[in-house]
Amino acid sequence: MIRRALLVALVLAAACGPVAATPTPTPTATPSAPTTTTALPSPSPSLTPTPGLMPLFDAHLHYSAPAWSVYPPETVAKILDSVGVRSGLVSSAPDEGTFKLRAVLGERIIPMLGPYRNVADVFSWARDPSIVPYVESIYRPRVHRGFGEFHLLPGQLGLPTVRALLALAQREKLFLQPHADARAVAELLEYVPDATVLWAHAGVDATPDQIGALLDKWPKLSVELSLRVDIAPNGTLDARWRDLLVRYRDRFMIGTDTWTAGGTFTGNERWDAYAEIANGIRGWLAQLPTDVAEAIAYRNADRFLAQLPR
Ligand SMILES: [Zn+2]
Fold it and tell me: Mind listing the domains of the chain with CATH numbers?
């Protein structure tokens, strides 16, 4: 129960988080990871990841407005280099954040088309028709590779804004990156059965059994693992998770989720803790067979991106 409470607190703390229909973000808990600023190594002009470290592909990055001055793109580049993150999927509120990062990090930044102009949109986008022209105005064909991260609650697929943006994504052959619980993602998969879907946070609180059942049923479903502290409580890989990750070794990716939270948060707590988060992921990857760890660390992402339409 403690683990569950921690997970819920962690998710409630995230602007990237609430799966419940909360009208206003009011974080009431601090993230579990320490938030001390990580000491950075000296600049690496080549922007290449640290040699000798297994590369990581971060399938869940955000570079939203509160991060821009505190973590300028050059600083983000040093952080990614220092922990061996080679590249990642990035969506930002607003979208220009992604391209500030891409201007410095180039092809390492894979742009995602996100529906949020600001933090508040996370909670209201599905019922806000003004989101549609915003997304249409920022969309760059063949540059944005997927649509998301977007938050989806059960029962929201009938909403006009949701339908309009899913139609845009289908038309443009963008894969989908939903933040949705097991019920909402199942509804989404039924609604767009041909879509390639990268399920954010493995559904936040979906169980390994639920995740496995969905992977069995939907061959174009992949799963991203940010925020899942239950994979390795206290650093030890959970046995049910181990079975799931080994069984579906080709379907998982790691992610950190550098969200932006409002309220009393600075919005940069996940960037502050980035090295610790990445090292925590390396800790449980190291408890898997090497080929499985490499698949989840970066090979699955490479293959996933290579098979996308351009
Ligand atoms: Zn999320």
Answer: 55-306 (3.20.20.140)
